[in-house]
Design goal:
The two termini are about 25 Å apart. This protein has an eight-stranded mixed β-sheet, with helices on both faces. A four-stranded antiparallel β-sheet has the order 2-1-4-5. It is built from 17 helices and twelve strands. Helix content is about 45%, strand content about 15%. β7, α13 and β8 form a beta-alpha-beta unit. By secondary structure, the chain is an alpha/beta fold. α4 runs antiparallel to α5, α10 packs parallel to α12 and α12 packs parallel to α13. Among the domains are: about 160 residues, no CATH class; about 70 residues, no CATH class.
């Protein structure tokens, strides 16, 4: 099993992620809109330097989640925050849009809060029954909308959310943001110039000229904070201040700037490589696209060969085509293509499922070595519980679009809390002939993701299910330190 992550710095933060895909109507006479509910209300943090394992039956939404947080699919709802860079480095358009309309955005939040309170009062007054459960879902939907909008604003301005005059705050924050962006661009140019030319002195002089303006701008903001710091809610809002990048609000060009940071290793090593390109061309494609190397830069070949060596590929493979390799070698090429861009985060989407067992172990060990060498963070998707146990620091268990349990690997495998996790673990075959453990088989079929069951989605196959399971969606909550679960009938909690 992988070592537990020592770092606890969040790299990816997913909040209430929802991913729906529309489907054709069952009938031309029907007005009902149908959706495949691939992911629903997923909230989790992925820490820098860890391998987060994601496990579940086929079709539960694991791959969709991986692609959604990389924004390969446009998220239906929710927030995905990335902390590998900050808003000043990328300068996403949504930041200025919000800062320019602070007063309007706050009024929207207040209106939603009023609707939320009314929905909650309606829910409280209703007697137990179907109508009350519907009212609860309506309240939760408004609550999520209000919270998302509130966070969009307060993450940018913190405690200044309490200010009487948000126009003053808007002007100060905009000025500071633009200066910080300027500073970040100059720092990036200096970093590039050190590799290429003697422009450094001029750029450093520009940066030194900018520093007093930044200090002055920051002083203006600090003065505003001093003005409102005695407000009872100031500290509460200030704690929300965040310079992470909300990936869901980036346009295509802004997202492209982050593509090299966020990479994907595909499941199928046979179809994921262009058959017309050599190994060298496959790896160099991303390097040219992201302008890490220029077309005329001859040093790129040495860089590619070094990357290939890290991934266990011989130098003479450079000019060969994908059809000349085995499945394991092709997967190594796919890994090299991702690692070459020096990413911070990689989604490994069933990266070893198409390989035989001996090759699987080689690729898994390679991924572990690269993680240590390059300080990578993985989301490792698999339906193989043994593989997940070996490589993961923490594990999330998915069922029909929801994460039903999340814990550190050792904790989850030894003391599962959710009945579905218990069933999955009991289904692992054993070679111990003396073992008394019975192999558990889940009865019933997986429900349709188009019309999932009400309440807990697992209740149709759960031996512990009661009336509350059929009617009420369980909250995803911390049952033990670091161990989260969504279940009305938790196991092993005593």
């Amino acid at each position: 099993m992988a070592n537990k992550s020592k770092k606890k710095k969040v790299l990816i933060r997913i909040q209430n992620l929802k991913q729906y895909f529309s489907v054709k109507k069952a009938s031309v006479f029907s007005n009902e809109k149908l959706f495949v509910r691939a992911n629903e209300d997923i909230t989790l943090d992925i820490y820098e330097g860890e391998t987060f394992g994601l496990v579940g039956e086929s079709g539960c939404g694991k791959s969709t989640l991986g692609r959604s947080l990389l924004q390969l699919y446009e998220q239906t709802d929710g927030r995905t925050l990335y902390y590998g860079r900050n808003i000043y480095e990328i300068n996403p358009g949504y930041v200025e849009n919000i800062l320019e309309k602070l007063e309007v955005e706050r009024k929207k939040v207040e209106n939603l809060k009023t609707k939320e309170e009314a929905a909650f009062e309606k829910y409280k007054k209703l007697p137990d029954g179907d109508e009350k459960y519907i009212a609860l879902e309506e309240y939760r939907a408004i609550e999520k909308e209000e919270r998302n909008l509130f966070l969009d604003v307060v993450e940018l301005i913190g405690g200044l959310y309490v200010a009487d005059d948000l126009k003053e705050v808007s002007n100060a924050m905009l000025k500071n943001h633009r200066l910080r962006v300027k500073e970040s661009k100059l720092q990036n140019k200096i970093s590039q110039a050190k590799k290429k030319s003697s422009e450094v002195k001029n750029l450093e002089a520009d940066l030194n000229k900018l520093n007093p303006e930044i200090q002055e701008s920051q002083k203006e903001i600090d003065n505003l904070k001093d003005k409102y710091k005695n407000h009872p809610d100031f500290d509460k809002y200030e704690a929300y201040k965040d310079i992470g990048i909300n990936l869901t609000k980036l346009d295509e060009e802004e997202m492209r700037l982050l593509r090299k940071d966020l990479q994907l290793i595909f499941q199928d090593p046979y179809s994921s490589l262009n058959p017309r390109l050599t190994v060298g061309q496959i790896i160099s494609e991303g390097l040219y696209s992201h302008k890490i190397f220029e077309k005329k830069d001859k040093s790129i070949q040495d860089y590619i060969l070094d990357t290939m060596d890290k991934c266990g590929l011989a130098p003479y493979f450079l000019h060969r085509y994908p059809h000349q390799f085995s499945g394991g070698q092709r997967q190594r090429i796919g890994i090299a293509r991702s690692v070459a861009l020096n990413p911070k985060f990689i989604v490994c989407d069933e990266a070893v499922s198409a390989l035989d067992v001996s090759i699987q172990s080689q690729i898994i060990n390679l991924l572990i070595d690269l993680k240590e060498q390059e300080d990578l963070t993985y989301l490792f998707i698999s339906h193989d519980l043994s593989v997940i146990k070996y490589i993961s620091d923490r594990v999330g268990v998915m069922y029909l679009g929801n994460i039903v349990e999340l814990a550190e690997t050792e904790e989850l495998y030894e003391r599962p809390i959710h009945p579905y996790t218990e069933a999955l673990l009991s289904a692992i075959p054993t070679t111990d002939v003396d073992s008394d453990r019975k192999i558990g088989i889940l009865e019933g079929d997986i429900p349709s993701p188009i019309k999932p069951p009400s309440g807990c989605k697992f209740h149709t196959r759960c031996k512990y299910a009661t009336d509350i399971c059929r009617q009420v969606v369980p909250e995803f909550e911390e049952a033990r330190p670091g161990h989260f679960v969504a279940c009305h009938h938790k196991l092993n909690v005593d």
